[in-house]
Structure formats: structure tokens, C-alpha cells
Amino acid sequence: ICDERIKGIGESRHRLLHEQQQVANELSANVEQLREALAHQERLLHQQLADLVRLKEGQLDDQHNDMERRRNRLVDMYRESEEYMRDGASHKYEFIQRAHEMESKMDAHIALGLEIPELDLELARNVPYDVAQRAITALVFDSNSTGAPRPQQPKTDPVPSSQLTPAPSIRAAASPPVSSSNQSSPTKSPKDAVPNAVYVNGLSPDTTEDEIRTVFENFGDIKMVNARHVSNGGFAFVFFKTCLLYTSPSPRDS
Predict the structure, then answer these.
(1) Is the pLDDT of residue 40 over 90?
(2) DSSP state for residue 9 in the 8-state scheme
(3) What proportions of the chain, in percent to the nearest 5, are helix, strand and coil?
(4) Whether the Cβ atoms of residue 168 and residue 203 lie closer than 8 Å to each other
(5) What is the 3-state secondary structure (H, E, C) of 26-85?
(6) How far apart are the C-alpha atoms of 179 and 195, rounded to whole Å?
(7) How far apart are CA 226 and CA 224, in angstroms?
(8) Quick check: 203 and 245 in contact, CB under 8 A?
(9) Considering the entire predicted model, what is its pTM?
(10) In which order are the strands placed within the sheet that holds 222-226?
(11) Is the pLDDT of residue 76 over 50?
(12) How large is the average pLDDT for residues 87-109?
């Protein structure tokens, strides 16, 4: 029965690892799609920024061209005025005749405004990075779904065995002592179905299978040692080839 159950456990482990690989591949594929979407969105943001810069540059170009036109008008008026003053010395009649015209032109150029409107050249825009960040951090297994993994507790450094106060507890997985007739019999636990198994608790995380076998081989022929949970649970199972009778260990054995 033990062999069949151990075989079944092994098959369940194989299915578990196979499904883990499938889910891991699915996770990688979906995360890769998210990376591609993020890269596309980054390119889009850069394109929007470039378009905004081109818009601002167009506004600056309009101001530059407008100011160039104003400067050219002022330069032309200055040259015309110089020519008018220079010709006035020899053509006094024409000078007087054009005086009103030139005065009006000069008044118009003097009134020509040289101010330019202040442009909004700010490029910073409100991009909801925090919303995207929260969406990314929300990518966790659904805790409401069946069989969803619980968040792992942070790993801590193993405590040296010398600092452990309680000694490792050893319980033989045999049936409990028969109670008196006036007491109800205790409910059997799953371990009662395997009378040749010993449950060992309180082990140091660095305890090896060979060390456990060395300690317990003095009590009988060992069929198998299950030490898979020593590193993360501190317990192990020792399976003997024959059934053991539970006896209180002596202080030396403890």
C-alpha cells in the first residue's frame, strides 16, 4: 500500500511539474506581449513628443518670419528717409512737396509694434505612469481562484542548530495507546495508516538525508527517508521495513 501511494505521489508530482511548465510558458508569452505593448506605447509617446516639438517650432518660425518682415520694413524706411534727406539739398521743391508723405510713412513705421506674444513652450504633459504601474503590480494570481498560490513569506537565514532551544521531537507513527473503557477513543489521523513510519520534527534546515538515516538505522532496517521538507518545514519521515513498537526514548536516545 505504501509503495502504491508513494508511486501515486510521484505521478502527482510529475503532473504538477508538467502543469508548472505550461503555466510558466503562458506567463512568459503574456508578459512578452505586455513588453511589446509597452514598447509600442513608448514609441507612440516619443512620436507625440516629436509632434508637439514640431508644433512649437512652427509657432517660433511664424514669429521669426513676422519679425523679419518688420525689420525689412524698418530698413526700407530708413533707406528711403536717407535718400529723401540727401536729395533735399539739391531738390528743395520736391523735398517740401514730399514732406507730408514722408512724415506719414515715418509715423506709421514708428507705430509699428515690435512686441511678440509669449508662446507656451512647455513640453511636460500629464502621463498616467502611476496608473500603469498599479496595473503592472496587479498582475498576480487570482487569490479567489481555487488552488491559487499564497504569497510566499520572505526567506530568513537558517538558525544554527546550536541556537535551537527545543530538541527535535520524534513520534512513531503507530496507533496511540489504548485508552480506558470510560474514555472515548481518539480519532485516527492519516499517519495511523502507515504504522512503520516515523515523523521527525524540529530539524535544522541544513540536515541531510544521510544524517537522518545514520541516527535511525540503529532502530531497524530503513526502507526510505523522505527529507524533502527539511529545508522549508523542518520535518522528515523515516519509513522502516517492519512495523515499530512505540517506546518512550531514553534520555540518551533523545
Answers:
(1) yes
(2) H
(3) 55, 5, 40
(4) yes
(5) HHHHHHHHHHHHHHHHHHHHHHHHHHHHHHHHHHHHHHHHHHHHHHHHHHHHHHHHHHHH
(6) 18
(7) 7
(8) no
(9) 0.43
(10) 169-172, 197-201, 236-240, 222-226
(11) yes
(12) 72
